[in-house]
Specification:
The chain has one domain: Rossmann fold (3-Layer(aba) Sandwich). Helix content is 34%, strand content 19%. 54% of the residues are buried. The model has no long low-confidence stretch (mean pLDDT 96).
Length: 294
C-alpha cells in the first residue's frame, strides 16, 4: 500500500478546518453526515458549535451522534437531545441522533472478534460522511481520534457494548464488568468496527479531520476532564483514517512540550497504538504517510 497523504496546519480556526477539507480534493456528495462528539458536559473538551459550524455549512451537512453505552447525559434519547440543545449545536446546524429510531447490523469482513457491527438506522440515509474528531486522550482506548469516532462513535448503544466486550454481549449493563475483555481485544474490536463502517459507507464517500487541541488525557465523554498539560498541536486531514491517527500520535511524541508526558503515559498505559496496528493489519488503512504542511 502506498503512503497516504496527511495534511497539517498549526492554525486552529473554523476557517482552517474548511481549508483542510478542501485540500483533500474529495467533494463529499449527496446527503452528508458530520460525525463528531457533542460532549458529555459543558466542561468537556469537545469541539464547540461555533467552531464546527463553517465546515458543516460548507457541506450542507448534518451533525450526527449516537447514544452512549454508559449512564450520563447521552445514553437516553430524551437526555441526549437535551444535552445537544444545551450545548448549542442545534443553533448552528441540523442534528440527528442516528439510533433514535432503531439500529441495524452491518457485516465485518476479516474480523477476529466481531463479524458484525451494530449502528444507528439513521446511517442508512446518508450518502457520505465526514469524520470530524477531537484528538485527545481516552481513559479506556489510550487516545481518541478518527478510528474511535468511526467505531464507538457510529455504533448504537448496543453496538458500543458489543465493541467494548469484544463481541461477547450487547447488554450495556454487562460490557463494563463481567464481559469486559482483555485490553487488546477491545482495541482490536474498535478497529474491526471501523472496517465494517468503511465498507458499508464506501471509502470513496468518507473523509477525516482531526483537531489536536485541548489535549487532555481524558475523552470528551468525560464530563469533568483533566485540564490539558500540553499545548495545542494543530489540525490534520486525510482520506485514510489509520494514517491520520498515526500522524497525530507521532506529533505528540515529536512535540518539544514537556507537558506531553501525561498524554504519552495515558496512551502507552492503555496500549492505544494497538488500535492503529490492528486497523492497518485488517486493511482499514496504512500507517505509512506523507505529512504535507499547509
Amino acid at each position: 500500500m502506498e503512503k497516504a497523504k496527511v495534511f497539517f496546519t498549526k492554525e486552529i480556526t473554523p476557517e482552517a478546518v474548511v481549508r483542510m477539507y478542501e485540500a483533500l480534493g474529495r467533494e463529499l456528495k449527496g446527503k452528508v453526515a458530520v460525525k463528531m462528539s457533542t460532549g458529555e458536559s459543558k466542561k468537556s473538551n469537545h469541539l464547540r458549535p461555533e467552531f464546527v459550524a463553517p465546515i458543516v455549512n460548507r457541506l450542507n451537512g448534518t451533525i450526527v451522534e449516537c447514544c452512549t453505552a454508559y449512564g450520563g447525559s447521552r445514553q437516553e434519547i430524551r437526555k441526549h437531545w437535551a444535552a445537544i440543545e444545551e450545548r448549542g449545536f442545534k443553533k448552528v446546524a441540523p442534528v440527528e441522533i442516528m439510533d433514535e429510531f432503531g439500529e441495524f447490523e452491518i457485516p465485518i469482513e476479516g474480523g477476529v472478534h466481531m463479524d458484525t457491527d451494530i449502528v444507528g438506522t439513521g446511517l442508512k440515509s446518508y450518502d457520505s460522511v465526514l469524520i470530524l474528531s477531537h484528538f485527545k486522550g481516552h481513559v479506556m482506548g489510550g487516545f481518541g481520534g478518527a478510528l474511535k469516532n468511526i467505531s464507538i462513535g457510529i455504533a448504537s448503544s448496543h453496538g458500543k457494548a458489543k465493541i467494548h466486550s469484544a463481541g461477547v454481549t450487547i447488554d450495556t449493563s454487562k460490557c463494563w464488568g463481567e464481559c469486559k475483555p482483555k485490553q487488546d481485544d477491545f482495541l482490536e474490536s474498535m478497529a474491526e468496527a471501523c472496517k465494517g463502517v468503511l465498507d458499508y459507507v464506501g471509502r470513496e464517500n468518507m473523509a477525516y479531520i482531526n483537531v489536536a487541541n485541548r489535549l487532555s488525557v481524558d475523552c470528551d465523554c468525560d464530563g469533568n476532564p483533566h485540564e490539558p498539560e500540553m499545548a495545542d498541536i494543530g489540525i490534520f486531514a486525510s482520506l485514510d483514517p489509520v494514517a491520520i491517527d498515526q500522524a497525530c500520535v507521532d506529533a505528540v511524541y515529536a512535540s518539544a512540550d514537556p507537558g506531553k508526558k501525561a498524554l504519552i503515559e495515558r496512551m502507552e498505559s492503555r496500549h492505544g497504538i494497538h488500535t492503529v496496528e490492528h486497523a492497518a493489519d485488517i486493511g482499514v488503512g496504512t500507517r505509512e504517510y506523507e505529512l504535507i504542511e499547509l
